[in-house]
Automatic annotation (TrEMBL):
Main location: secreted
GO cellular component: extracellular region
Pfam family, one: VWA
Transport found in the keyword field: no
Source organism of this protein record: Gadus morhua
Name of this protein: Matrilin 2
InterPro entries: ECM_Assembly_Org, Matrilin_CC_sf, VWF_A, vWFA_dom_sf
Residue ranges annotated for the VWFA domain, each copy included: 24-203, 294-466
Keyword annotations of the record: Glycoprotein, Repeat, Secreted, Signal
Tagged with keyword Secreted: yes
Location of the protein in the cell: Secreted
Length: 519
């Protein structure tokens, strides 16, 4: 999105407007009869709180507000008020409409009227972000999907906030992608104030001068008021070029690119960067990216997760993928999602880079039904680790199963078959997941194969432990071997056969004969 986080030190406090980027910002407020008068006042209070995060002015952020019931009523357009105080007075003067819920009509008005130059929107060529924040408490009496999609295509970024019994699918039809950052649901109007901190991080902030990734810093990039500067980790100092770092100590433990020194008493020891594990020699660092592995994720898509938590699950998958060097000859990644059925999102042989895998994960759509974990394990065992799906012989096979509750079918049979066939099983449970069931799924010992988080927000805390566990015991890429040795000829034939199968699946080759049949 176009906004910059305000979590960094130096963020402007609430007493003064935040120095965020200029916006054309429209509040679209449900004023239907289902909203009680005292709840309507809470909505106004929420708007007033959010205004504290905006620097309002003709050359800063312009604010418009409309409310809707059976009709749409514009309270003020983008060019009506030149200061935050003026906007606040207009918000306090709003009167409850107490009629129907024509959300689609309000979205149409927002796109056709609010965000026009006649109403104060700045020309599209200036690239001022156009933001619409929709607050609603019920099911629309008209359709919203088409008009919301049209508004998003026209460049309007939409935040959808639901209160009470709003259908999540309706909010997702309204809000922009990713839904985890644009769609919010709270239990009641008293809870809407809990979203203040969420939107403070979006509306208040400094310009991120390091955000384009062109800083070239070897270690860390630090965002300053008017520039991006490089910083070295402890034990290093910045070289004259202002970008690379050199050790402040003389030692024999520094290995460029992986290990850096940390001071312990009068000695120094090697410490590896995130994603690396210190080798037995105490100097070298191994990364899962140097490993050869076929890894299949099995993620729970049951309705108990909810769409927002499902986005966190996808983020967890991508965090693990970040520690891997995904390639044809290194690590291959596949993904299954399950609910009352199992869906192969992509096979082991489908993608050859981490970027492609992460993009595919981001496109995965939430299933939202039952929880047939045993069925997913069966599919993994019978299908996922086959040559047709891109699995390799002689390579470690591993599976990460993520679930948030008890399975509706038996997990023991197919988990045991997979483990007996040499598949290393990791089980990650969240919330109401059953510990005994996780142990039935996972390989032994439990300490390194079973993981649990009380809620989805805590998943990040165990991601590093899981990544470290996956790295242990993986075979790393061998050094160059004599291609004329018999064993290596056989290995070449196996690899060539796998490649031809993948080409056939991509409709590049229509007929092929396995190498073992070629005389």
């Amino acid at each position: 999105g176009p906004w910059v986080s305000c979590w960094a030190p130096g963020c402007v406090p609430l007493e003064t407007p935040c120095r965020g980027v200029p916006l054309d910002f429209a509040f679209v407020i449900d004023s239907s009869r289902s909203i009680r008068p005292r709840d309507y006042e809470k909505v106004k209070a929420f708007i007033l709180d959010l205004l504290q995060f905006l620097e309002v002015g003709p050359d800063a952020t312009r604010v418009a507000l409309l409310q809707y019931g059976s009709v749409v009523q514009s309270e003020f357009p983008l060019n009506a008020h030149a200061s935050r105080a003026e906007v606040e007075r207009a918000v306090r003067a709003m009167q409850h409409l107490a009629s129907g819920t024509m959300t689609g009509l309000a979205l149409q008005y927002t796109m056709d009227t609010v965000f026009t130059e006649e109403q104060g929107a700045r020309p599209a060529g200036l690239l001022i972000p156009r933001i619409a924040m929709v607050v609603t408490d019920g099911r629309p009496q008209d359709t919203v999907e088409a008009v919301a999609a049209e508004a998003r295509r026209a460049g309007v970024q939409i935040f959808a906030i639901g209160v009470g019994r709003v259908d999540m699918k309706t909010l997702q039809a309204i809000g922009s992608q990713p839904h985890s950052e644009h769609v919010y649901l709270v239990a009641n109007f008293s809870r809407i104030q809990t979203l203040n901190a969420v939107f403070q991080s979006k509306l208040c902030g400094e310009v991120d001068h390091c955000g384009d990734g062109k800083h070239g810093c070897e270690h860390e990039a630090v965002n300053m008021e008017d520039s991006c500067v490089c910083k070295c980790r402890d034990g290093f100092k910045l070289r004259p070029n202002g970008k690379s770092c050199k050790s402040e100590y003389r030692d024999n433990c520094f290995v460029k690119g992986t290990c850096h020194m940390v001071s312990v008493g009068n000695a120094c020891v090697c410490k590896c960067r995130d994603g690396f594990t210190l080798g037995p020699d105490g100097k070298s660092c191994n990364k899962c990216g140097n490993a050869v592995m076929d890894l299949v994720f099995i993620i729970d898509g049951s309705k108990s997760l909810g769409p927002i938590n499902f986005e966190l699950v996808k983020g967890f998958v991508n965090a693990v993928v970040d520690s891997l060097d995904v390639s044809r000859n290194g690590t291959r990644v596949g993904l299954l999602q399950y609910s009352t059925k199992v869906r192969t999102e992509f096979t082991l042989g489908r993608y050859a880079s981490a970027g492609d895998v992460k993009e595919a994960v981001s496109r995965v759509q939430y299933m939202g039904r039952g929880s047939m974990t045993g069925m997913a394990l069966r599919h993994m065992f019978q299908t996922s680790f086959t040559a047709k799906e891109g699995a390799r012989l002689g390579v470690r096979h591993a599976t990460i199963v993520l679930t948030d509750g008890r399975s509706q079918d038996d997990v023991v049979e197919w988990a045991n078959k997979a483990k007996n066939a040499g598949v290393t099983m990791y089980a990650l449970g969240v919330g109401k997941a059953i510990e005994e069931e996780l142990k039935q799924i996972a390989s032994e010992p439990d300490e390194t194969h079973v993981f649990y988080a009380e809620n989805f927000d805590q998943m990040g805390e165990i991601t590093n432990r899981l990544k470290s566990g996956i790295c242990q015991g993986i075979s790393f890429r061998p050094s160059y071997a004599d291609p004329c040795q018999c064993d290596n000829v056989v290995m070449f034939q196996m690899q060539a056969t796998e490649k031809m199968i993948m080409l056939t699946q991509d409709n590049i080759l229509f007929h092929y004969k396995p190498l073992c049949q070629i005389v």
